Amino acid sequence: MTEQILTLLSSVSSLASSKDTLDRVTAERPGPVPPLPSPAVAPALPPKGPAPGAKSPGRRWIPIWAIGLVGVLALAAAYVDVPRLYFVETDDAYVQADTVSVVPKVAGYVTALHVTDNTHFKANELLVEIDPRDFEDALRSAEATLQSAEASKANVLEQLSEQTHVIMAAQAAIESDRATREFAQQQLARYTRLANDGFGTRERQEQAVSNIGQRKANLQRDLAGLAAAQAQVGVLQSQAQQADGVIAGAQAAVAQARLNLSYTKIYAIVDGSVANRTVQAGNYVQPGQTLFSAVPTEAYIIANFEETQLENMRVGQPVRVRVDAFPNQRLDGHIDSFQRGTGSNFALLPPENATGNFVKVVQRVPVKIILEGPTGTLHSISPGMSVEPTVTIAPPPSWLVPFLSLIGDAPE
Predict the structure, then answer these.
(1) Which helix (H) or strand (E) holds 334?
(2) Residue 376: how many CA atoms within 13 Å on its side-chain side?
(3) pTM of this prediction?
(4) Is the peptide bond preceding residue 374 cis, with omega within 30 degrees of 0?
(5) What is the CATH number of domain 88-97+298-407?
(6) Beta strands of 114-263 (E only): which ranges?
(7) CB atoms within 10 A of CB 98
(8) CATH number of 133-262
(9) Assigned CATH topology for domain 100-131+265-293
(10) pLDDT tens, 344-393?
(11) Burial of 215 from C-beta contacts in 10 A (0-12 / 13-18 / 19+)
(12) Is residue 224 classed as helix, strand or coil in its secondary structure?
């Protein structure tokens, strides 16, 4: 723009110089040739001074219209180029918010809807209730299963305790059997000696032999009973481990049932408002079905600046935002971040510059702007609104601020 204005000024100056030259030549040109004098009359000499009304050859003048045109062009250049030294702006910007879709995680009938269209809500406020009766029954059933599993484990533990006493009784019986067998052996030796000396009967000796055999058999029986009792301990321990697994599964079922029951009530995560509501009280809803959109109160701006405007832009620079819906109000903010990639790079069909004829197009880079206030205006804007952000890339000098204020570019 500045180069074009300078070229135009040069053209105007050349035009003015050409006109001065033309006027000077016209003033110095002699008048018409006088007729030949008669022999008796001397020829009249031409006047030595310049022709009446002619301008002096040494004076140059510039028309008033050229001076006015130069002034207008200078003001236009200042209006266009001076603000670019301190501000960068774009009209390709929109209000955005992290809008979420409110969806149920369980199926059922909506028994209560605590919000309606455009309702404002606070964080942790109850929004929707789904019929909880089926999930309450499922929770009671899971709790009953857990109680049964815990009772089974308690029974196994009691059996383990009882089996300890059984083992102790078997060990005591074995000690008794060993003592009895020792006595039977002594009796057999005594009766055998008496029978050999002729003082005892053969019958008594045979009875002692039979008695010792019986005692040995009892000992073997009790030893086998002890081994069986000890083996039963391992069986009961495995049953206890199995009971632990059943209890863990029952506890997980109870936890899941409680979660499903909690899903029948949907709460707000952050402050916001309702948009695009599609549910009514009494509707049967499915998991994943969108009930409405929750638009958070906090919004931000995505401004698509041209890549040629990013040279002096930095994170943290102040931003003044004009909202099309509220032209007489301004929002304050600052640059939060720059997207790593142009908008066209993430398009559904990104450009393929390596094929066909290439036409260079200035790309745009999304820039996130965080809004700071004023609070009243922040609560009035909505996602999708058009805005015009102006980034201050350098503070203008104080003497220039009145001029920038006059053309509407100075910060307030």
Answers:
(1) strand 326-338
(2) 3
(3) 0.62
(4) yes
(5) 2.40.30.170
(6) 120-121, 126-130
(7) 13
(8) 1.10.287.620
(9) OB fold (Dihydrolipoamide Acetyltransferase, E2P) (2.40.50)
(10) 888 888 877 777 777 888 999 999 999 997 888 888 888 999 999 999 98
(11) buried
(12) helix
